[in-house]
């Protein structure tokens, strides 16, 4: 395995150096990967844990605004079972230090599918920066997991996020998840939407939501994934009576939206270490006077960069995308919110939806109005960098058709599956890297030192561009 990987590295480096094209814009990597679509792995591959009514599909996410709470979710297939989660500090062996958090159960029907018992329990008042064990189930089917809470929120607190999007459940998805999982640096995942792709199957076969929950458990039971809803979470099927958008998603994936005064789980914010993370919904109304618009308008001025220097926005549909897919789908939201992002000096906007990888320059297009004719994005040091990372590897395959020439706002683009790592060091510097699945874990195909827009607003140099 190791020697095979080394050979692959050498091959990849030489290959990239020789065929990278410099266009009007940045770099279009022509790294070759197989283009055949991967179908979903069969349902039977994702076996439930052994034992009658064993808790399965265990997943955690942040449960409050600052990281002292965790929402633990799981499914019991046959009967409700125990509603509580037992937890204790990893550094205590005294049984008296075991605590219990009580949850509640939800079930739902979708066309002719009936869900198992979906449990959600919020554990509160945890210590910062502390490892906990937690247990679900009883007797023979007790299952034990662990998580580590983040450090207390503060301006120079280092923290490392993984970034994954459009994952699905194919062998490519499995490669992406395994690749990220083997990277010991990731402490929490920023997930930019499109989870199970159940809706690509007849009647949105909701058993695919169950298999996806089993698939990701190995990682998400141990570190929180911060959820964004994508178009594949809509599950809108009116011809078969399913008229409530986001029904399976909202039943299965809970987020702490009330903590940030949001009125919907589809948009909310959290603070974690030195980052302030705002999650938006591309598929909910965001025009003027709508709930999401009003919330974001109130929300942005609340961000205190002295406390959380890094301001990161997650949304599913990219605003800047130079591939021949989803043309202008993000444009209406860009028109509504881009000037706010520039005004509030957002550091990074993460999106998925397009099944490839792309990183933009710091650009904005806020001068444009319908009469002045100025419609091209311009370099803008107050603007965010836009990352499209819809390359988790779902059954729809890779997006490999680029617009030519590469626009000047596009710094790097490649048609490969992978994940990213955002390694925040302090208030001024964060190391960002993108890791394609075909490479060994430490190899970064695209990387740069990000400079914080509030504390250190100087230009960045990407290692990829320098190399070419
Ligand atoms: C749901 O309906 C589909 C299509 O009629 C059928 O193939 C499937 O077996 C049904 N599932 C259940 C649980 O009844
Ligand atoms: C996922 O990949 C791992 C590591 O290569 C492998 O052990 C596992 O069997 C794969 N899982 C599935 C469902 O293919
Ligand atoms: C739009 O552009 C025109 C032409 O430059 C300018 O006169 C007008 O004030 C602009 N409108 C707004 C709302 O900025
Ligand atoms: C912040 O981190 C960067 C990268 O590790 C380092 O070069 C810089 O000196 C750090 N700044 C401070 C104030 O420690
Ligand atoms: Fe999508």
Relevant CATH superfamily of the domain at 154-193 and 266-467: Metallo-dependent phosphatases
Task: Characterize the biggest β-sheet.
Answer: 9 strands, mixed
Would you tell me which CATH topology of the domain at 154-193 and 266-467 applies?
Answer: Purple Acid Phosphatase, chain A, domain 2
- Rounded to an integer in angstroms, the radius of gyration calculated over CA atoms is 22 Å
Number of strands: 27
The molecules bound to the chains, other than polymers, are: 2-acetamido-2-deoxy-beta-D-glucopyranose, fe (ii) ion
Task: Detail the poorly predicted runs.
Answer: 1-23
Domain Purple acid phosphatase N-terminal: 55-149
InterPro entries: Calcineurin-like_PHP, Metallo-depent_PP-like, MPP_PAP, PAPs-like, PAPs_C, PAPs_N, Purple_acid_Pase-like_N
Domain Purple acid phosphatase C-terminal: 383-441
EC number: 3.1.3.2
Summarize the structure.
With 468 residues, the protein is of the alpha+beta class. It has helices at residues 2-19, 171-181, 207-220, 247-252, 291-299, 331-343, 463-467, and strands spanning 21-22, 27-29, 56-62, 70-76, 84-89, 99-102, 104-106, 109-110, 113-114, 117-123, 131-136, 143-148, 159-164, 188-191, 225-226, 268-272, 275-279, 310-314, 348-351, 357-360, 363-364, 378-379, 385-389, 410-414, 418-424, 429-436, 446-451. It has seven helices and 27 strands.
Structure description:
Residues 383-441 form the Purple acid phosphatase C-terminal domain. It catalyses: a phosphate monoester + H2O = an alcohol + phosphate. Its EC number is 3.1.3.2. InterPro entries: Calcineurin-like_PHP (IPR004843), Metallo-depent_PP-like (IPR029052), MPP_PAP (IPR041792), PAPs-like (IPR039331), PAPs_C (IPR025733), PAPs_N (IPR015914), Purple_acid_Pase-like_N (IPR008963). This is Purple acid phosphatase. With 468 residues, the chain is an alpha+beta fold. The chain has a domain at 154-193 and 266-467: Metallo-dependent phosphatases (Purple Acid Phosphatase, chain A, domain 2, 4-Layer Sandwich), CATH 3.60.21.10. It is 16% helix and 27% strand. It is built from 7 helices and 27 strands. The chain has helices at residues 2-19, 171-181, 207-220, 247-252, 291-299, 331-343, 463-467; strands spanning 21-22, 27-29, 56-62, 70-76, 84-89, 99-102, 104-106, 109-110, 113-114, 117-123, 131-136, 143-148, 159-164, 188-191, 225-226, 268-272, 275-279, 310-314, 348-351, 357-360, 363-364, 378-379, 385-389, 410-414, 418-424, 429-436, 446-451. The strands form 6 sheets. A 9-stranded mixed β-sheet has the order 1-2-24-20-23-19-18-17-16, with no helix packed on it. The longest helix is centred in the N-terminal third of the chain and has 18 residues, at 2-19. It is globular and about 70 Å long. The two termini are 29 Å apart. 48% of the residues are buried. The structure holds 2-acetamido-2-deoxy-beta-D-glucopyranose (4 copies) and fe (ii) ion. Fe (ii) ion (FE2) binds at residues 166, 194, 230-232, 316, 352-353.
